[in-house]
Each structure stands twice: as structure tokens, then as C-alpha cells.
Design a protein that fits this description.
Strand content: 5-15%
Largest sheet: 4 strands, mixed
Shape: globular
Number of helices: 28
Strand order of the largest sheet: 2-3-5-4
Structural class: mainly alpha
Length: about 700
């Protein structure tokens, strides 16, 4: 179960190659009864709100919901994901019938989609599209040529702050973003990589479930090698998995990755040979087209030193097999059916627990969204996001930002100087609603109607070259990282910016016919969540201009760190399985954003009433509706394999524990008369309230 960016659980695929693996694994969608308020039919009234608020709000929906065979999980909020996919597919099919001029954006959309849907051509071509790349790997004769080949695989497929594809399958990943120390220009960040399975825990954890996954992974690697004609595949697979295990040992964890100050390591190109010996770095950077790049920010120095040493110590033939396997693995979805099915067998069945693939049209839509997202999004926004909806959403955002400003001003523990800097961040915060001000230019991306493999390969290179060309250039603070048809939201700390795509600003999240209590509890909590990321353990390291700078007094920082440690400890106690607990440090930034986001949205809701009484729905007060709407955001039903994957790899807590955020909010206790002795009850001194 893989998702994107900071609000929803993230995807491991930023690039089209990796999107294929995520597509194979499946995602979530679920029906939700149409309503213009809280979904009372979803309640389990046998459960007391103070014992399990999540089950109270969602229990009957969970009981009556069956997981379809192609779903790793379904959640009540994913109605919009399904709707957006169907709308996008309809747009694509409509565009495909228009016979647009060659080279136009519309023609590229049609050709990309049709090339994926044309299964007969994919089967007829067999392995011919990938054979030249496999031959090039086979022709590597020494470690110098290996270094160049590794450099040629570098892609702009990571985003450290949003944990997007944090573990790239290439040896390292490039992220182009505003510099930590020069936020006015784009800088080159390098991140650890080299793994196919979701992250290091899949290689290192000693639980029975992870050992079983590794056994199946070994068989999968061997099967993939056999399908492309390799011999001695069991031995080769063993060496590949051993190499990936060694790489995983060098990686830092997702929780460790969030310490921005430890990530701020500027290395000149000449430093790499001394700081990370083993890899021919000059040849690597030449292969990557970065031979003239003077410096890089190396996010995980120990991983770079460790992985570089493995290049020197591991046999050349093992590295060649590793390259070949990674190449075939992440193109499997656009190669003959046998490879695609073997890929789904591992990523879909083993890792996610699904038994059927998503419909091919839906996988095609996701590829188009990955590679031509803005071209589709421009049309999507014009058709499905009217100016009135944009204006209403902007008004709600302004109200919640104002509420957050008041909350900061009222903090008794914060020094005026720290408050001034926090307020400055809110003043300069850019909030994008619906769609970006400018659209991406795809003129340099060549798309052919009968070449899906080439379209994927060229698409990834297009993204990479576009990013490399921006290095050293002035930044665009209003740049978006998502498209209008994406059901998500994001905070971009280096830009001090938020984005709320059009597709999330619809019912059941945002419904003009719903009571204010429900809108503020649903989309308002999402808005508050993203605003709060500006002040989480990551966001708080950046000033109003996006520069890494400590703008806190020592006493304020000590208080903040103590409060966040208490929140991490609270989430450490949650156990989805007897043998698996949440990692409170790994999910800390998201949990901070949930707590602060609900608090700010609640304040914004009460401000919106302007002293008027709140309407009652089905006997529930306005405050009760607000908190129920928040809990219903997170109702979900998930396969055990997918849930285990989320706990191991995701910076977000599972939905059940996100709904439990309310136990830190005083107003929730009053709204539902929660008393000592009830399971979620926390004494006032134990409730964590940071902002």
C-alpha cells in the first residue's frame, strides 16, 4: 500500500520506472455513501467514543466492507482517487479520438496511453526493447566502466523531505531543490539507494514475516533472471540479494533521515574520492552528466561511504547481475506478460497481499499522470475545478492560517523573538489551491504511439535532464510537485509552500452543502495538517526564506524537543500486530502535524461560526460532528501484508492511530464526555499539545 507525499502514505515511485512497480502492487479505493455531513451509517454505536473513537466512527463500515482482490486496502477517503482516475481516463480517451497534431501535448497523452494499452505490440516485441541495455551491461569489463554505467542510471527520483521514493533502486538518487544554505537557487542533493524492496527493514528485520518475504524475494529474483535468459539464476540471485542486504546495512533509517542538520553536508566533487573511496567518482559523475557540478549536498554520508566501499569489494559480475536485475525489474510492467505477472506476483501478492492486478486502463492512467501529469492536469482543472470552488477553499485556508497565527501568539512557553520568526513563516507561506500558476513544458519529451518501453525510458531521462538543467538557477517558489488530478496535499519546507490539488477539494473532504463542522473536521484538518508541517521536527529547522537556520531560543527549543519526545513515546505504544509496534520517531513529523492540524482546524471552525450556534445533525453537536468527520477521514480496511509494509516504510501512522490524535485535544473530551477509565483517556498533563 503505497502513496504519495506528506498527507497520505507515500509512494515509492516518483519516476515512471518505479511507478510501474507501485502500480503492480495496487493501491486503495473505496465507495463511501453519498452524504452532506457525517456518515452516521458508518458508526459502530456499541463502541464508546472514549474507548475506541476510530471504531465508533467507522466500525460498521469496516464490518460490512469486503476487500476486492485487486486492492491492498480500501479507505473511505479514496472515493476521490477512484473518481479522479475515471475522470482522467475519460479525458485521455476523449483526447485519443481527436487526431491531434504530432508533437502536441494532446497527441503525446494519447500516444503514451495507447502505447501502454497495446498489449499485442508489447508481446510481439518481446525483450527486443530492453536487449540493447542488457547487452551494454554485459559488456562492462572493469570497475571504471562499472562506475560510468552506475552514473548513467542516476535519476531524479527521490525527495528526501517528502520521503518520496526514499530508497531508489539505482545506487544513488538525485534530488534538485532549493539549497539548504542558499535557498534562492537550486542545488544538487544525493541520497542513498540501491534497494528493490521497500526499505532496509525488509532486508534486516529478524521477524518471521520479514524472513518469509526475503525467501520469496530470493525466488522472485531468480525467476526474473530466468525469464530474460540468464543461466545459474539461483546462484546469481543469491549474490544479488546478498549485495542488497549489504547495501541495506549501510543505509540510515527513515527515522534518522528526518534530522535536517545531520543531512546538511556539502561535498565538493573532489571530496568524494577521499570521503567515500571505492567508486570511481569522476567516471560516475561523467556518466551522470554531472562532471561540471562543483558540489553536492550528501544527505547520508555514512551510506555513501559504505555503498562506495561495496563497489570496490564486491565482484564485478555480481554488480553486472545487480544492474541487469534492477533494469528488468522496473520495466517489467511494459515487457511481455510473463515478466509483468512475475513482478506482480511479488510486489502485489507477497508485499501487498492482493490477488489481482488493477485494471489495465487504470495502470495506464497512472503512467500518463506520472510522465505527462501537467498536460492532463491543465485540462482536468478547467473541466472539474470551477473558480467558485477555488475561492471557497482559499477562504478556508486563510481562516485556518489565521487560527494558527492566534495559537502561536497565545503560547505561554514561547519567547517573543521565537514567536516573531514563526509568524514570519506564516506571513511568507505560499498556499497553492487547485492547480499551479504555470504548466510544465513537455516539448522535449518524445512519445511514440508504439513504443511504451522507449516512452518510459525517455520520460525518466526527460525528468532527469530537466532537473539537472535547473541546477544553480533561481528557484520558483510557486512550483508544484503534484498535478490537479492528484488526491493529496503537500508541504514543501524548502519553498515554505503548500499545495492542495483540485482533486482533493471535493466531497467528502470539501462539500459546499455540508455543515461547516464537517468541512473543517475533514478538509480543514488536512489544511491544518499541512500548515503544521511548517513547524514540525523538519519544518521547524527552516526559516521564513527556506534556509536551514536555528531561529529558536535555547529554552524554546528544549521545550519543543521535550514535547515532541512525549508524542513519539505515545505512538511507540501502538501495536497493530503483537510482534510489530509503530516507530514514534519515524512517524513523529506527521503525528505533530495531525495534532496541531486538528487544533488549528477546530479553532478555525469556531471562528467561522461568528458566535452563531452550530447546526445539529442526527443529534450530534457541531463539535461532535467536527471530530467524527476527522476520524472518518481515516477509516480503512487493509490487508495484513500491506499494513506491515506501511508500518515499516511509511512516515505516516496507520489510519486507526491517526484518528486517535483526538485524545490529545481537550475539546474532544468535552464533546464526548470522555472520563477517566476509558481506554483513550489521557490525564490533562499527559496530553501532548505542541502548537
Amino acid at each position: 500500500m503505497k502513496w504519495t507525499l506528506r498527507f497520505f502514505p507515500r509512494a515509492t515511485a516518483a519516476s515512471a520506472l518505479l511507478a510501474l512497480a507501485a502500480i503492480a502492487a495496487g493501491s486503495q479505493e473505496a465507495p463511501r455513501p453519498e452524504t452532506h455531513g457525517i456518515a452516521v451509517a458508518n458508526f459502530d454505536r456499541s463502541v464508546k467514543p472514549g474507548d475506541d473513537f476510530y471504531e465508533f466512527a467507522n466500525g460498521d463500515w469496516i464490518k460490512r466492507t469486503e476487500l476486492p482482490p485487486d486492492k491492498a486496502g480500501i479507505g473511505v477517503f479514496n472515493t476521490l482517487d477512484d473518481l479522479s482516475n475515471k475522470r482522467t481516463a475519460s479525458l485521455i480517451e476523449e483526447l485519443a479520438k481527436g487526431n491531434a497534431p504530432a508533437g502536441s501535448g494532446v497527441r503525446k497523452i494519447a500516444d503514451l496511453y495507447n502505447s501502454y494499452m497495446d498489449e499485442s505490440t508489447i508481446e510481439a516485441k518481446g525483450l527486443a526493447p530492453i536487449r540493447p541495455y542488457l547487452n551494454a551491461i554485459a559488456a562492462i569489463h572493469n570497475k571504471r566502466e562499472l562506475a560510468r554505467s552506475l552514473g548513467e542510471t542516476l535519476r531524479a527520483d527521490v525527495d528526501a523531505l517528502n520521503n518520496t521514493n526514499f530508497y531508489t533502486p539505482n545506487l544513488f538518487g538525485l534530488w534538485v531543490a532549493p539549497g539548504f544554505n542558499d535557498p534562492e537557487h537550486y542545488a544538487a542533493y544525493l541520497l542513498q539507494g540501491g534497494l528493490v524492496m521497500p526499505n532496509r527493514e525488509y532486508y534486516l528485520s529478524d521477524t518471521a514475516s520479514m524472513r518469509d518475504v526475503r525467501t520469496k524475494y530470493l525466488a522472485h529474483v531468480s525467476a526474473m533472471l530466468k525469464l530474460i535468459g540468464f543461466t545459474d539464476t539461483d546462484v546469481r540471485a543469491q549474490h544479488i540479494v546478498e549485495l542488497e542486504h549489504a547495501i541495506a546495512e549501510k543505509h540510515i533509517s527513515l527515522a534518522e533521515n528526518d534530522d535536517i542538520h545531520k543531512a546538511n553536508n556539502t561535498w565538493k566533487q573532489a571530496d568524494f574520492a577521499a570521503k567515500a573511496p571505492g567508486l570511481d567518482w569522476a567516471e560516475y559523475f561523467r556518466g551522470a552528466g554531472l562532471g561540471r557540478q562543483a558540489s553536492f549536498i550528501v544527505w547520508q554520508p555514512t551510506a555513501f561511504a559504505g555503498e562506495s566501499a561495496l563497489v570496490a569489494s564486491t565482484a564485478l559480475d555480481t554488480w553486472k547481475d545487480w544492474l541487469a536485475f534492477h533494469l528488468i525489474e522496473f520495466h517489467a510492467g511494459v515487457l511481455p506478460k510473463a515478466l509483468a505477472e512475475e513482478g506482480f506476483g511479488f510486489f502485489g501478492k507477497t508485499l501487498a497481499g492482493t490477488t489481482e492486478q488493477r485494471p489495465r486502463w487504470e495502470r495506464g492512467v497512472r503512467i500518463v499522470n506520472t510522465l505527462l501529469g501537467d498536460a492532463v492536469g491543465q485540462i482536468y482543472a478547467q473541466r472539474y475545478f470551477p473558480p467558485e470552488a477555488k475561492a471557497q477553499a482559499e477562504a478556508m485556508v486563510a481562516n485556518i492560517v489565521a487560527a494558527f497565527r492566534r495559537r502561536i501568539e497565545a503560547l505561554s512557553w514561547m519567547d517573543p523573538s521565537t514567536k516573531a520568526e514563526a509568524q514570519a513563516k506564516l506571513t511568507t507561506l505560499y498556499v497553492g489551491i487547485g492547480y499551479a500558476d504555470t504548466w510544465r513544458d513537455y516539448s522535449a519529451y518524445e512519445v511514440k504511439g508504439d513504443d511504451i518501453f522507449g516512452n518510459i525510458h525517455r520520460g525518466n531521462l526527460f525528468v532527469y535532464h530537466r532537473n539537472v538543467a535547473r541546477l544553480g538557477q533561481p528557484i520558483d517558489r510557486k512550483e508544484w510537485t503534484m498535478e490537479p488530478q492528484t488526491v493529496n496535499a503537500v508541504n514543501l519546507p524548502l519553498y515554505n509552500a503548500l499545495s492542495f490539488p483540485a482533486a482533493i477539494l471535493q466531497p467528502p473532504f470539501f462539500d459546499p452543502q455540508a455543515p461547516a463542522a464537517v468541512n473543517y473536521g475533514a478538509i480543514g484538518a488536512i489544511i491544518g495538517h499541512e500548515i503544521s508541517h511548517t513547524f514540525d521536527t523538519e519544518g521547524s529547522a527552516f526559516d521564513s526564506k527556506g534556509r536551514v537556520r536555528n531561529w529558536w531560543t535555547p529554552a524554546d527549543l528544549e521545550h519543543f524537543n521535550a514535547a515532541t519526545a512525549r508524542l513519539a513515546a505515545q505512538y511507540d505504544t501502538y501495536r497493530p500486530f503483537p510482534d510489530l509496534a509503530l516507530n514514534g520517531k519515524q512517524t513523529l513529523a506527521e503525528n505533530i502535524a495531525d495534532v496541531a492540524g486538528v487544533a488549528a482546524a477546530y479553532d478555525g471552525y469556531h471562528a467561522s461560526l461568528e458566535g452563531k450556534p452550530a447546526p445539529v445533525q442526527d443529534g450530534f453537536s457541531g463539535d461532535q460532528q467536527f471530530f467524527i468527520a476527522f476520524a472518518q477521514n481515516w477509516g480503512e480496511k487493509t490487508r495484513d501484508a500491506a499494513l506491515r509494509q506501511q508500518v515499516a516504510t511509511d512516515p505516516h501512522s496507520p489510519g486507526k492511530y491517526r484518528a486517535a490524535t483526538v485524545r490529545n485535544i481537550d475539546a474532544w473530551y468535552t464533546a464526548f464526555d470522555v472520563q477517566p477509565g476509558e481506554k483513550l483517556y489521557l490525564a490533562p498533563s499527559d496530553r501532548v499539545q505542541i502548537w
